[in-house]
Write a structure and sequence with these properties.
The protein is an all-beta fold. The protein is about 0% helix and about 60% strand. It has no helices and 11 strands. It is elongated.
Length: about 120
């Protein structure tokens, strides 16, 4: 069983910074990629950023410049730093991991953490 536990969400003011964390635990051979998605009310879940096992990063266009994804391989943890928060960043942020099992690759989601930005 694999668990993804997010933390770091909360209610902040516009212009603040926030760092989300996602710790991955359980039995797997390797974490191939980790990422963050977000879902605002009434919208579909969308990719924010991802990072591969090699450290390659990819950002959704609206996340470029203010969002930074990083990972600590020793801790099986992925981070998302968000600077200069805007009200439109308000959403539930979900951690996502692509894991390598014994014979196949599979994906898991975290439970989500709420970020609310007030103007």
């Amino acid at each position: 069983q694999v668990n993804l536990v997010e933390s770091g969400g909360g209610s902040v003011q516009a212009g603040d910074s926030l760092t989300l964390s996602c710790a991955i635990s359980g039995s797997f051979f390797r974490i191939n990629a980790m990422g963050w998605f977000r879902q605002a009310p009434g919208n579909r879940r969308q990719l924010v950023a991802l990072i591969t096992s090699a450290g390659t990063t990819r950002y959704e266009d609206s996340a470029k410049g203010r969002f930074t994804i990083s990972r600590d391989n020793a801790k099986n943890t992925v981070y998302l730093q968000i600077d200069s928060l805007k009200p439109e960043d308000t959403a539930v942020y979900y951690c996502h991991a692509v894991l390598q099992g014994a014979s196949s690759e599979y994906a898991r989601w975290g439970q989500g953490t709420q970020v609310t930005v007030s103007s």
